[in-house]
Each structure stands twice: as C-alpha cells, then as structure tokens.
UniProtKB/TrEMBL annotation:
<protein>
    <submittedName>
        <fullName>Response regulator</fullName>
    </submittedName>
</protein>
<feature type="modified residue" description="4-aspartylphosphate">
    <location>
        <position position="72"/>
    </location>
</feature>
<feature type="domain" description="Response regulatory">
    <location>
        <begin position="23"/>
        <end position="136"/>
    </location>
</feature>
<dbReference type="Pfam" id="PF00072">
    <property type="entry name" value="Response_reg"/>
</dbReference>
<dbReference type="InterPro" id="IPR001789">
    <property type="entry name" value="Sig_transdc_resp-reg_receiver"/>
</dbReference>
<keyword id="KW-0597">Phosphoprotein</keyword>
<dbReference type="InterPro" id="IPR011006">
    <property type="entry name" value="CheY-like_superfamily"/>
</dbReference>
<dbReference type="InterPro" id="IPR050595">
    <property type="entry name" value="Bact_response_regulator"/>
</dbReference>
Length: 238
C-alpha cells in the first residue's frame, strides 16, 4: 500500500462510507457531470476512475475490472448503450452497470440494453447515488448495521462547467460532419438540463428538430454558438 487511498480501499464499508472497497469507472464526456461523480464517490468512500469516451473506457477495462461502471448514453465516439450491452452480457460480469443521461429516454435505452439501473442527470444527491449502487450489490458487500440516509448534495466546481462550454464553443465554430453536430447538440442539451438553463435547452432542442427534419441548420447553429459564448463570458465575470 503506497497511499491513503489504497489503505481506505482495504477497509470494510461503513454506514458513513458505504462504498468503501469499490472501484467505480465513470464513462462521461462532460467535465461538469464527471466532477459531480467524483464528489459523490469521494463522499461515499469509493475509488473513482474516469474515461471520457468509449475508446478510453475500453483501455481502462483492458487493464482492470471495476466493481461499478456508470456509463453516459451520449459519448463523442459512439453510444454508451453499446458498452452497457457489452458489459451486461460479459462473463465474468461487472457487479453493477448503470446508465446515466439527461435525456428523458435514457433510462429506457439503458435498461433495455441490460443496465442494472439508471442515474438521471443532474445528479447531486449523495443518498440517492449510494442507494442506486448498493441495491445491486450482494449482502457481503453491504455496510453492517443501520445506514443513515443523507439528504446532502454535492456542488461541482463551476470551472468544470466553463470548460465544457468552451470545448463545445470551439467545436461549434466548424462542426465537420452531421454526426459531430448531432453529438454537440446532445452534449449541450445535457449541460443545459444539468444547470436548469431552459433557454439554452430550448434552442438545442430546436437545433435537434431541424437535424431530424433534414432542414438547414446554419442559422440555428450560429444562434446556439452565440448563446454558449454569452454563458462563457458571464461565467468568467463571476
């Protein structure tokens, strides 16, 4: 053991840290959402490993077998549904496979692919996060005694949100194909829902509708890009 983290992982779970001993792989492209997951794992006692794409997730999985994998549905290089299906059917199976998304249809897609459960975005409740993992673990992985449910929430660093917006703004300057634009639309829609930005959410939905209908999107892309730049500017002032 060469760190406090290694030491903590050898301890049995407790009521205060019910996920001690677990390694959680979070497959998430948003830095803001990933930061929320990091704080949730930290407060719960779990070790977290993060991947921002299917490619990097598979590199992680080739090296070690996590206890829990939490997979975002929309990823830059494909659908998280495919990874959920692969892990759900794998042998030996990962103990807990959960889908996550801000898309209202995300839960249906995750469960259909074989996920054990689903975490809707935005995710901030420590108690809810712990419960969704613990309900799928065997009895010998559960903390002993009575576990007090907490109503505490985590608040991700707003710098992570600004990083997400900045990355999206750069990509929106010249989306190189329809698939990239669809991904960016989904990505920004998820961010908007996570921070309750109903105006940006509405405009990304309008952009998605134009793409689905096969109509011209240039003016709407410019409108969304301008809104993203405005939010970056405001966050820098704050």
């Amino acid at each position: 053991m060469d760190s406090l983290d290694d030491f903590m992982q050898t301890r049995p779970p407790t009521s205060a840290r019910p996920l001690l001993g677990l390694t959680v792989l979070v497959v998430e492209d948003s830095r803001f959402a990933s930061e929320a997951m990091r704080l949730l794992c930290l407060r719960s006692g779990a070790r977290i490993r993060r991947a921002d794409s299917l490619f990097h997730a598979n590199k992680h999985l080739a090296v070690y077998r996590p206890s829990v994998v939490i997979i975002d549905i929309g990823l830059p290089d494909g659908s998280g549904v495919d990874l959920i299906r692969e892990l759900a059917n794998g042998r030996p199976r990962v103990e807990v496979v959960l889908g996550t998304s801000g898309d209202p249809d995300g839960e249906r897609q995750s469960i259909k692919a074989g996920a054990d459960g689903f975490l809707p975005k935005p995710l901030s409740s420590i108690g809810f996060f712990q419960s969704k993992i613990l309900e799928h673990l065997p009895a010998d992985r559960q903390p002993k005694g009575i576990r007090m449910l907490t109503d505490e929430v985590v608040v991700p660093d707003p710098v992570a949100l600004r990083d997400d917006l900045t990355s999206a703004a750069m990509a929106l300057e010249d989306p190189n194909d329809d698939r990239t634009l669809r991904y960016l639309t989904q990505f920004l829609g998820g961010i908007a829902r996570s921070v309750d930005d109903t105006t940006l959410e509405k405009e990304t939905e309008a952009l998605a509708d134009l793409q689905t209908a096969g109509q011209a999107v240039h003016s709407q892309v410019a409108r969304v890009a301008a809104m993203v730049q405005d939010r970056i500017s405001r966050s820098a002032i704050i």
